[in-house]
Amino acid sequence: MVDLATLVSPDAALRRLWTGGEWCEGPVWVAGEAALLWSDIPNDRVLRWSERDGASVFLQPAGFQNGHTLDLDGSVLACSHGDRRIERLHLDGRREPLVDRYRGMRLNSPNDIVVKRDGTIWFTDPPYGILSDREGHTAESEIGACMVFRFDPRSGELDAVTDAMVHPNGLAFSLDESILYVSDTEGWGNPGGPHHIRAFDVIDGRRLGPPRLYYDVPAGVPDGFRLDEHGNVFTSTLEGIHVVAPDGTLIGRIPVPERTSNCVFGGPGGRTLFITAGASLYAIETLVRGAVPGPGGHR
Ligand code: MG
Asked: What is the 127 CA–ligand 1 centroid distance (Å)?
């Protein structure tokens, strides 16, 4: 059993880097800028933080962006609740649409996103951006289901890879990309609903086998999560970050004083864990690096 102290020093202090948002989410570390971008969804803005410049508003309005990740070339990809699409977020603030429809129907409100080493873009599509005007614009679901999608930017093909989740939310590949982890957060609004991460075997690099339970979050829901270089999952929960071994056992907890939504590794050595939680952005130094998928850097 791995000891949490080998991953995060017991002396490491959680720092609050910024507060003043309403619901912070979607952190991404942009290595070329030595800066973090993240969303404050209800305020329809993307914020930027760097050690040198501190925090500032990067983009507002921002199409109610939620999750972000890096593409293989290091550029930033974003989920837009407001425009119900996947888009590229350029560093001059331009938002370039990539995909917004499945078989002619508008997506619900893409939530979180990850890029596979083959360049395909995988994302979740729960309804949080269309349930109310708080995180997007109220609308009916055209698809009538919440799926996980695989988008191939070379062919423009969009495939649904599973509809097995009620509200699919965070997602990440295992280090060798043989497993896709997906969280289901429907239990946030429905006490009897799911609040877990499930694991799917990836078949032929593009399809998913049946899901199995990976980790049930006892407090709140697992919204977003990231992997470290050893394949451990750092997942958000109501009470902070839970660190979970590849076999699904809980290694330990990193308490955060606000409801935690997501995290990402970054910083100069890739060992800083940035955490979005409630109104705030936090960081804690770790003893590990984030999983590195390709030339782009840390997921
Ligand atoms: Mg999310």
From this structure: 11
Cα distances (Å, whole numbers) of residue 23 to 47, 65, 257: 12, 12, 14
> Is residue 274 situated within a structural domain?
yes
Could you list the residue range(s) of the whole structural domain that residue 47 is in? 4-285
Residues 250-267: tens digit of each pLDDT: 999 999 999 999 999 999
Tokens describing residue 255: 């308490």
pLDDT over 90 percentage in the chain: 94
User: Cβ(150)–Cβ(162) under 8 Å?
Assistant: no
CA of 113 to the centre of ligand 1 (A): 9
pLDDT tens for residues 127-145? 999 999 999 999 999 999 9
What's the domain count of the chain? 1
Instruction: Give the type of residue at 216.
Output: D
Flag whether pLDDT at 297 surpasses 60.
no
**Is 270 part of any domain?**
yes
25-60 burial code (b ≥16 CB/10 A, e <16):
bbbbbbeeeebbbbbbbbbbbbbbbeeeeebeebbe
User: What is the DSSP-derived secondary structure letter of residue 152?
Assistant: E
Quote the ligand 1 centre to 276 CA distance (angstroms).
11
Q: What is the CATH number of the domain that holds 113?
A: 2.120.10.30
Taking the centre of ligand 1 as the mean of its atom positions, its distance from the CA of residue 170, in whole angstroms, is 5
Question: pTM (2 decimals)?
Answer: 0.97
Distance 80 CA to ligand 1 centre (A): 12
Question: What would the pLDDT profile of 51-102 be if each residue is shown by its tens digit?
Answer: 999 999 999 999 999 999 999 999 999 999 999 999 999 999 999 999 999 9
Nearest of 79, 160, 158, 65 to residue 112 by alpha carbon: 79
List 87's β-bridge partners, or say none.
78, 97
